[in-house]
Amino acid sequence: MRAVTAALALCLAPSMAHADPPPALVLWAWERPEDLRFAPRSVGVAYLRATVEVSPAAVRVRPRRQPLFVRDDAWRMAVVRVELRPRGATLTPAAQARVVDVLTLAARSPGVSAVQVDFDAPASQRGAYRAMMVAARRALPRGTWLSMTALASWCAGDAWLDAAAMPVDEVVPMVFTMGRGGAEVLASLREARAFRSPACRGSVGWAVGEPSVSLRGLRRRYVFNARPWTPEGAAPWYAAP
């Protein structure tokens, strides 16, 4: 086994011609020390690679600073988080290009099969978000799996993802820490067993300690943990829902 650290992630490797899609279960590893070497080979790891902070004054990239340990043969996804500071900041063409650069570098990291963008885009920035993802699709190595997270509200009652036709391989609605309206989203999912938006029906994001729902047609589950992963915390998610 070896450590996958920020320094290792910055190294370049030849791109894969045809990246495998994510496995049926993927554990999110956020910005803290994580040791996921206990996870079975069938379980993927989506780790925070970098956070891109966009402000009117500058675009700053904060790479992962905490160590991450995974199996040598673990399926890996590099996640790039985009944050607007303040919330009213604009995702300018220059900022879009910087995010695409970070994604492309991440996609060429050793062992990485996919990249994911995590951006809670306000309505005013949706056009810029799509433009950025179009540019990312063009720039990424051929065959790279491109994923994006989504607020649950985008998938439950807002049709913009379907209208935008985002050029991604999957949309992952995050059904946790939803705040106001979260109970209604869960109630709707329990009744319909699927999101209203067709773009959001293949993958879903749950969280340890929060409710989950059995969904029709679901191919993939991502799981977030607010605390460091342990074998005991991950084991209940290995079984199919």
Walk me through this protein's architecture.
With about 240 residues, the chain is an alpha/beta fold. The protein has a single domain (about 1-10, about 20-235), classed as TIM Barrel (Alpha-Beta Barrel). Helices cover about 25% and strands about 30% of the residues. The strands form two sheets. Strands 2, 4, 5, 7, 8, 9, 10, 11 and 12 form a nine-stranded mixed sheet that branches. Strands 1-6-3 form a three-stranded mixed sheet. A hairpin with a 4-residue loop joins strand 4 (about 45-55) and strand 5 (about 60-65). Mean pLDDT is about 90; it is low at about 1-15.
Features:
alpha/beta, TIM Barrel, globular, 241 residues, 9-stranded mixed β-sheet
Layout of helices and strands:
Blueprint (H helix, E strand, L loop, with lengths): L1 E3 L1 H4 L15 E5 L4 E2 L7 E12 L4 E5 L4 E3 L5 E9 L8 H15 L4 E8 L6 H14 L5 E7 H5 L3 H5 L5 E5 L7 H11 L10 E5 L12 E5 L6 H4 L7
Parallel strand pairs: 2-4, 2-12, 3-6, 4-7, 7-8, 8-9, 9-10, 11-12
Antiparallel strand pairs: 1-6, 4-5
Helix pairs in contact: 2-3
Low-confidence stretches: 1-17
Estimated helix fraction: 10-25%
Form type: globular
Order of helices and strands: EHEEEEEEHEHEHHEHEEH
Spatial separation of the terminal alpha carbons:
30 Å
Assigned CATH superfamily: Glycosidases
What integer is the average pLDDT?
Answer: 90
- Report the major sheet: 9 strands, mixed
Radius of gyration: 17 Å
Q: How many H/I helical runs?
A: 7
Give the class from helix and strand content and strand pairing: alpha/beta
Number of strands: 12
Strand content: 25-35%
What is the count of distinct domains? 1
CATH topology: TIM Barrel
Q: Please report the first level of CATH classification, the CATH class.
A: Alpha Beta
Q: Specify the CATH architecture.
A: Alpha-Beta Barrel
